[in-house]
């Protein structure tokens, strides 16, 4: 766990300010589909994300169709890996009869001069089949001339070659050279002579069609050709997608398609371009070609969308279309949950479609049944989802990776399918949870389900485990149901921060009691899943006491702090000499001033009669002591102790030097939050009250004037807070003089009753010392 002492104000200011980091898009997206568990890696560049498509490096690995074609040419007597080595890594000089490569040795042993000549020619063309010319264009003319010479030679060799295989290969090299020469006319001519869009028998035909599609002038035919290339060649999928013109009406392209397969190919690409609901497109493909793997992949993508649209808002309370938190409507968690409900209705429509499908006709029935199980979970039909999962578990091979995703959805069903107040971590799910303990979104989702069902202890236990995950790159960002559009920038990725903001003292006590004796818990799951260390428990007692401070339950706060002892606070919160040197353990968090005698931005005016090590426990103890003295009717200096108490409460606000009594961080960007003492922290209302008590017991006009002056200062903090956080409020741009005189009743009282001291006191703080000294 992050130690409290290293939570610096600078870090939190960066994290929560409008100018700092704010999670959105992929940062907040919830998903359980693991692409590695499904059979659609050939489409990996098009897996669902909230971002635009990008080339997946794994997708650059071809299906080795060209290598397989060469292996067939070699009567299957050469390994694909040996062929690939020559095609990918050898240069022209590497092709010789003394080569140790089995592919080259085979060709030379067969005295296959034509194949060897072709390989040498292809290697000679490689440099010219690229856009990577001289950046200063010093050799542009030379390259152009050389490329055109090779183009003409390739055309000649294609016409002279005796073997059909090499006619096509030379012709394909000519197409590539013409493309890099930007010679569309030559592409059209060469393609017409050696290829046909209706004959795509091997990889050479498909690659040739790719260049034909680039040169095609008819937009509908261009799209049709790219759709055919996309379907036939995984290696060319991303570039085909980029060239595909989605703005061309789909009906125009379907009209030039000659069969159902071509129509399905076209519809697939239009489906990939659709970032929204794509069910109608999926239905069309099913009608044309139900056994198409592209259809299953589009269903996979649709499930990915639904995970984002349903689970992201439901579990994280972030909007799926939240643009850097700029839209206040997107930050209202109740509105976000409403949108999640709307998308659950769409999930039901997709489910109804699957129920209408003949699964014996689809390419991967197991995947379709898995999708059905997850959609049932999305639509909260937990019992039927578990039934579907049980059916799949019986037929899936034990080594099938789909089982892992199936177990995750099964576990989420088991968690969600419980009643409020009776939810727990189901025994049946514990082994699965331990196996997937580094899947942060999965672990958090289970915690959220428990939290929604009233089990805050186990929810916190699961949240806390995220800090020990081996996955250091993915974070779960989430909000609270208490968030509103007033709490800009309030989000969490650490359980302590979340408990700090959301959990009541009673819930913190319950959680502490649960985890402090985990080693004695007869249920081994808790010990095996997550081991809580003593520093975490100490931090939670610190939090408990801090929460009681926020509620102004000082005795309960002191009890919590006493559990930790003096040494903990001396180490964590004291700026005190240690071994003869000032101990700066955490700059910005340490009590650098005694909050009873010193005020920020105010020259010292109260003699410091008591010297003690200042930290949370000592301040709490002393505050109780001074309050007891101030409330004692027999105490002759009640006005004095009320004033010290008021100073402490003022310093415990965001304007003071003891804000760490109530917070673990403050921000210059604003300190509005969902913590229960938000108004007190921003307005110092208790300080105003106790300055008023000091005024009631004051015996001199000067001292009364000082008390009123301090009440007026706190009253201005209230106006600042109102103006920042309400719409119908006193504008911050209003004249300061009008605010302090026109609305501040304490300053009005001050001016009306102590006019002789008014100008002296209101103009600055330099005279505070003499006014306090005049108390007696």
Automatic annotation (TrEMBL):
**Residues making up the signal peptide according to the UniProt record:** 1-18
Which UniProt keywords are given for this protein, alphabetically ordered? Signal
Record's protein name: Tetratricopeptide repeat protein
Originating species: Chryseobacterium caseinilyticum
């Amino acid at each position: 766990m992050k130690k409290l002492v290293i939570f610096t104000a600078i870090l939190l200011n960066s994290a929560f300010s409008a100018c700092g980091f704010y999670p959105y898009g992929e940062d907040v997206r919830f998903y359980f589909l693991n692409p590695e568990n499904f059979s659609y890696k050939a489409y990996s560049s098009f897996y669902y994300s909230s971002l635009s498509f990008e080339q997946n490096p794994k997708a650059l690995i071809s299906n080795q169709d060209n290598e397989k074609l060469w292996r067939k040419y070699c009567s299957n007597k050469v390994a694909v890996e040996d062929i690939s080595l020559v095609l990918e890594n050898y240069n022209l000089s590497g092709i010789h009869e003394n080569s140790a490569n089995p592919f080259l040795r085979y060709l030379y042993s067969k005295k296959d001069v034509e194949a060897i000549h072709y390989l040498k020619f292809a290697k000679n063309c490689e440099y010219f089949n690229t856009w990577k010319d001289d950046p200063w264009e010093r050799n542009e003319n030379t390259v152009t001339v050389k490329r055109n010479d090779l183009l003409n030679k390739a055309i000649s060799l294609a016409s002279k070659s005796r073997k059909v295989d090499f006619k096509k290969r030379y012709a394909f090299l000519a197409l590539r050279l013409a493309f890099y020469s930007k010679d569309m006319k030559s592409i059209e001519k060469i393609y017409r002579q050696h290829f046909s869009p209706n004959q795509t028998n091997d990889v050479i035909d498909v690659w040739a069609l790719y260049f034909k599609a680039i040169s095609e002038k008819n937009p509908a035919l261009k799209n049709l050709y790219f759709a055919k290339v996309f379907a036939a060649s995984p290696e060319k999928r991303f570039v085909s997608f980029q060239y595909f013109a989605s703005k061309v009406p789909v009906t125009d392209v379907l009209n030039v398609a000659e069969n159902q397969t071509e129509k399905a190919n076209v519809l697939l690409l239009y489906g990939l371009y659709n970032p929204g609901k794509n069910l109608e497109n999926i239905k069309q493909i099913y009608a044309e070609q139900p056994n198409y793997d592209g259809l299953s992949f589009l269903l996979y993508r649709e499930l990915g969308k639904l995970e984002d649209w349903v689970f992201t808002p439901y579990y994280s309370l972030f909007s799926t279309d939240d643009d850097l938190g700029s839209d206040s409507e997107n930050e209202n968690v109740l509105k976000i949950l409403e949108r999640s409900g709307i998308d659950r209705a769409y999930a039901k429509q997709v489910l109804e479609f699957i129920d209408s499908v003949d699964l014996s006709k689809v390419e991967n029935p197991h995947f379709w049944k898995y999708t059905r199980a997850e959609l049932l979970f999305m639509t909260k039909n937990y019992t039927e989802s578990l039934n579907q999962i049980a059916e799949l578990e019986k037929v899936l091979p034990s080594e099938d990776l789909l089982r892992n995703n199936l177990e995750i959805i099964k576990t989420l069903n088991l968690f969600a399918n419980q009643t409020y107040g009776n939810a727990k971590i189901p025994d049946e799910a514990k082994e699965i949870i331990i196996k997937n303990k580094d899947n942060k979104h999965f672990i958090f989702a289970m915690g959220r389900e428990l939290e929604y069902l009233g089990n805050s202890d186990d929810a916190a236990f699961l949240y806390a485990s995220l800090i020990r995950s081996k996955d250091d790159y993915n974070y779960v960002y989430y909000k609270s149901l208490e968030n509103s559009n007033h709490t800009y920038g309030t989000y969490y990725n650490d359980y302590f921060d979340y408990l700090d903001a959301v959990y009541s003292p009673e819930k913190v006590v319950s959680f502490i009691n649960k985890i402090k004796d985990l080693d004695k818990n007869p249920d081994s799951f808790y010990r095996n899943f997550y081991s809580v260390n003593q520093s975490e428990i100490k931090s939670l007692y610190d939090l408990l006491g801090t929460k009681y401070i926020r509620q102004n339950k000082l005795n309960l706060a002191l009890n919590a702090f006493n559990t930790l002892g003096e040494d903990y606070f001396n180490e964590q919160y004291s700026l005190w000499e240690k071994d003869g040197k000032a101990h700066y353990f955490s700059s910005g968090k340490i009590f650098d001033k005694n909050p009873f005698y010193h005020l920020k931005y105010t020259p010292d005016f109260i003699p410091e009669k008591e010297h003690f090590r200042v930290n949370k426990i000592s301040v709490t103890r002393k505050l109780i002591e001074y309050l007891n003295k101030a409330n004692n009717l027999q105490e002759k200096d009640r006005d004095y102790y009320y004033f010290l108490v008021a100073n402490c409460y003022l310093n415990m606000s965001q304007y003071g030097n003891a804000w760490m009594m109530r917070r673990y961080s403050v921000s210059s960007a604003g300190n509005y939050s969902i913590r229960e003492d938000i108004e007190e922290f921003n307005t110092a209302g208790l300080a105003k009250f106790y300055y008023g008590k000091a005024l009631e017991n004051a015996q001199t006009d000067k001292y009364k004037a000082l008390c009123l002056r301090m009440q007026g200062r706190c009253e201005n903090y209230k106006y600042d807070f109102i103006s920042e956080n309400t719409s119908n409020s006193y504008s911050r741009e209003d004249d300061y003089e009008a605010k302090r005189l026109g609305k501040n009743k304490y300053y009005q009282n001050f001016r009306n009753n102590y006019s002789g001291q008014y100008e002296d006191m209101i103009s600055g703080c330099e005279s505070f010392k003499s006014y306090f000294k005049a108390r007696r």
